[in-house]
Structures are given as C-alpha cells and as structure tokens.
Specification:
By secondary structure, the chain is of the alpha/beta class. Helix content is 28%, strand content 24%. The strands form five sheets. A six-stranded mixed sheet has the order 6-5-4-1-15-16. The termini are far apart.
Amino acid sequence: MKLIHLSDLHLGKRVNEFSMVEDQKYILWEILGIIDEEKPDGILLAGDLYDRPIPSAEAVQLFDSFLTSLAEKKIPVYAISGNHDSAERIAFGANIMSSSGICMSPVYNGKTAKYCLTDRYGEVWIHLLPFIRPSVVRHGLEGEEDSENIRTYQEAVQAAVAHMEIDPEKRNVLLAHQFVVGAMRCDSEEISVGGIDQIEAGVFEDFDYVALGHIHSPQNVGSRKIRYCGTPLKYSFSEAGQQKSVTVVQLEEKGNLTVREIPLKPLRDMRKLKGSYMELTALSNYQDTNTEDYLQITLTDEEDIVDGTQKLRTIYPNLMRLEYDNRRTRENQQIDGTEPAERKSELEYFEEFFELQNNQPMNEEQRKFSEELIRKLLEV
C-alpha cells in the first residue's frame, strides 16, 4: 500500500504581504507530476488546507482544481481540517464528494470517520481525526463518564483516540493535526502560549503510521511511524535552509513500513543574503542566481542606505525584508537618567542624539549638513 502524505498547504497565504498563490499553484502542479510517477493508492492531506477559516476565492478555486485533478486520476483523497481551517467549511459536501473518492473529515462530534483500502496483505484502515481542542471533545462526548474532566489537549486526543474503532490485527493509518512533544517548530507556525497544545507521541501507539500536520518542518517524532511531512513551500525565513519534500509511505505486511522523501523545487526559493550594499549589487554576485527568489537581505554597511529597499528591489524584486548588521544594531546603548541641563547649542544636542542612535559620532560631512540645516530652520 503506497500513500502520499501532504499537509499544511496554507492556500491563500501571504508572507510579508506577498501573495503565495502563484507559488502554491506551481508546487501543487509539481506534486501532481510526482503523483503521476509514483501512482499511489491514496493521498493523505493532514490539515491546514487553507491559511484562514474563511479562505479567499482564489484559494478555494486552487484547491478545487487540485482535488478535481486527483479525482480524475481515480486516486482516493483523505483530508482533515487543521487549526487554520474552518472544520464546518472543510466538511461541506463531504457526503457527495466521497462518491468521487474525495473523503473530507466531518466536524468532530465524538466519532471519527474511517475508510478502508485493500492490497495483497489485506485491509488498511484510514482514520480521520481533525484538529481538536479540549472544549470540542467535551462537547462531542457530552454525557459520557469523565467527559467534563477533559481539560488538556493530551486528555482530549487520548479520549478521541479511545473512542475510535481500531482493529489491532489490521493496519491502521491516522491523519491528525496536533503538536506532538519533541517536534521542532518554525516561525511561520501558530504558537500556543506555554505549550498547552502539546501531546505525547504515546497516544498514537496503536497506529501503524500517523500522518501529522501542523509543524512546518519535515521530521519524525518519537519513531519513524509518527511523522510531520512539513509544508510544500517555505513560509518563513527560519525555513530558508530546509529542503521541502513530499513524503511517500509504503505499508507492506503489518509492522513493515518504509518512508521516503521526494524533494520539491519551488517556483521561487526563500533565501537569506548578507553583505555590504556594494557587494550585493555587484553583477558578479547575482548573475548566476535566481534574482526572483524571496529574500531577506542583511546589509553590513555602517550607515543606512537611503531608500535601500527600493534600490535593492531593482535587482531583487521579491525582497521581503531588509535588515542591518553593524555597530548600531549590535550595541544597545542605554540612555541613563537625566542629568543637570548644560547650556549647549542646537548642533551639540543633535550631535549627541545622533551618536546615541547610531553608536558612532557624526563625520565631518554630516556635521556640516546638520549645521546648515539648523541654521536655515532658525532663520525661519
């Protein structure tokens, strides 16, 4: 049984005010090409299909096109809602779409959906557990003993799994969208204060493979059968060094599992550059690179470049963030308590202010410019 594990598409996402829809369309079509080559028995979509509960029209159209392509290939799709999704919107039309092999998780009501696939080793059961919070599980299990005592995410997931119909003699695959203890986070993820959303990997011990969503870096957690496939695209500069991929899961007889990654090549990469303004604008520095990539540039010039962002965008049009690394940014000079005022000229006050802001005194050219500017202001 071969399954392709995807998650965290975040369709419609904007990064630093740049729309990622064109990049998402490109990477989904690349994934469709991989699916054509791999010919899997099913696709697992482990939540955060959209970037917001009410997605944009273009995000919905893109996802519709992706699902339609999969349905035309006669490949079953199993999808759950994530914390960024609206569970009700993801569940809309689920009964109708299931007849075309598109199986969307229903809103959690104390029960979870499961579907059966078969191969030469027998049955494989796909269990769909959408993103859940303790309050959702309390409501779903209302009236059952101890349901009102469910307060933590750990207790919520434990209760939800305990109410699943799992045959331990069969092979069982779970789709879930939760934060498992030990997973490494990225800046683009939604963080819960104090780690209250954490759960232990042991909750999933009855499953032969757990297809997780929520964490954006591809990684195994606890064991090779519990895995985050990560996002298909980079959504923050903390992910700049990562290789995004598609996870391919091969289930043979029970207990025999193989997991491998197929790398993805985006339309535009997300990279970090560092150097002086002159270095980064030299033709030799960028002529053999993709200047269309999304960039974070750190300038090492001691003095800020006037209109630096706009000037750099003439070469790097998708510059997302401009930072400086120099004496001014490395040193945090404190302003102590007020001292008795001294009689100083306007220029002397401004020189002191300039040095506090930049951790270096004015040069002669800056001093002459400031002196002339102050003189004109006083004349007015």
